[in-house]
Amino acid sequence: MPTDVLLNAYIDLNILLLAGAALWIGARRLLGRSKLGRAYQPQLRLLNGMTVLLAASPVLIHAFTHFVIPHPPNFSDMLVSQYLQGHVNMSAGEFEALLGLREDAVRGLTTLQPLWAQTFAAAFATGGAVCLAHVAVSVFRLRQNLASAFLWKRIGSVQLMVSDTVRVAYSTRGLSHRYVVLPAALLNDPRDLRLTIAHELQHFRQRDIECEFLLEMLRPLLFWNPAFYLWRREVRLLREFACDQALMARPDFDVRAYCECLIRACAHAARSPAMFTRRSPAVALVDRRETRRGASLQRRILAVTAAQPQGPNSLGWGVVSLAMAGVVLATAMLLQRPSDWSHDRIMLSTIVNLERMASRNTAPELAISAVNGGFAVPSQ
Question: CA-CA distance, 163 to 87, in Å (whole number)?
Fold first, then answer.
């Protein structure tokens, strides 16, 4: 695949992530005003689905433009049409230069001739390498921790492991096995042990580990994009809310005991910062934010103790999901580059050439934009 195609797909992915993050924040605020606002499990499924869709959208749109509609509508052609209708107050040359910014940037990054392109490429390569090394070290530490733990029990395809080096339970998986790693001290508290195992098994049911894998794979590519960290934070927060809510829905579940278990887990984690030596991809009972900021744990407990939603409301969530997926795919399609010279673009190019001729053949103070009237004749 040509380098410029890959580069444009990468740019589209970053723009889509910004648009998707803005869309999700707006949707979350709207949902918060309705009865769907406390249904965390459907929200998590929606956000996980959007994560997969955003990651796959450049490939989907590339296939769509090759096999379905070769020349779909795009923002660039729409802006040219608006300009020709007189809705943009800008000279034709400036407008054409503005439209060509992305093409110029892609050309510079492809050839690496300009100094700014060389600097950007070096900075991106350095940042990506650092993030990739960080992920590799995290995976290595995770494998080390699994190797040092010992097998306690099996629940179906899940292996319950016990470790002397961890303070808080977490779950992860390999290609064929799933693991729940428990602190050795937890074996002395049967009630917390039962609640912790139930929590970690729920993460497997929600496919949270697979989503964490995807986010970790994207991090070396999107490390510079603040929307990625916002998106990841939303996914991680929602997965805990959804997991807690799923446990609350079980009959005779002790909410008070569960909240006390969360508080004790945070207390254990706070006593040993070394526990948070990066191990990834994994999902823990509590994370780093809940030991640094009490507000995160407070929000989680408030979500657990709040009134739980009644009924699945599949129709409402179906409409929301289709609307958000449609907006993302439509945005991805509109971001595509124009494929050929349309009539409007020929008109714009003609106007630009007329402006250049006018500026060369007349004094600068007498040159008039070709859009507004042609050439001026100096008075005698």
Answer: 67
